[in-house]
Amino acid sequence: ITSTKDVFSIVYNNTAEEKTSMQGAEELYVVPIAYDETGAAYQIAPNARKAGDYPELKMKMTKSGIFQYSCIPEKLFNALPAGQKIMKIEFQIVKPNLKTTSDMVDGTLTYYFNQGGC
Fold first, then answer.
1. Residue 94 contacts residue 31 (beta carbons within 8 Å)
2. 116 vs 87, which has greater pLDDT?
3. DSSP character string of the chain
């Protein structure tokens, strides 16, 4: 991916998940947070507990245990102020109705766009 106008995809293999509380998930969501060059953060869901309230954050199960999420970052984060560019996006994978850290994958996935933003 070279631009925030391109399709960005995450594939998560739940069958390889070591965290017992996340194994066998039937439904998952992503919690994306974009950062601009000033370090300001932009979110779709106000927090990870609310991710299930946003259908656009739902991951698609492509086959048993394999989940995929695709988006066009520029369209997903269309509320950036004029002139601001996305420098990186962090993704957290969670179960809907998250209650504790047992309902989320440990760690986050971070993607850095080309130097200077896109």
1. yes
2. 87
3. --STTS-EEEEEEGGG---GGGTT-S--EEEEEEEETT--EEESSSSGGGGGG-GGGBPEEEETTEEEEEE-HHHHTTTSPTT--EEEEEEEEE-TT--SGGGB-SS-EEEEPSTT--
Distances (CA, A) of 30 to 8, 14, 107, 116: 13, 14, 12, 25
* Lowest mean pLDDT segment, chosen from 4-13, 57-66, 89-98: 4-13
**CB burial readout 15-38, b (16+ within 10 A) else e:** eebeeeebeebeebbbbbbbbbee
Cα separation of 41 and 55, whole Å?
21
**How do residues 48-71 score in pLDDT, each as one tens digit?**
999 999 999 999 999 999 999 999
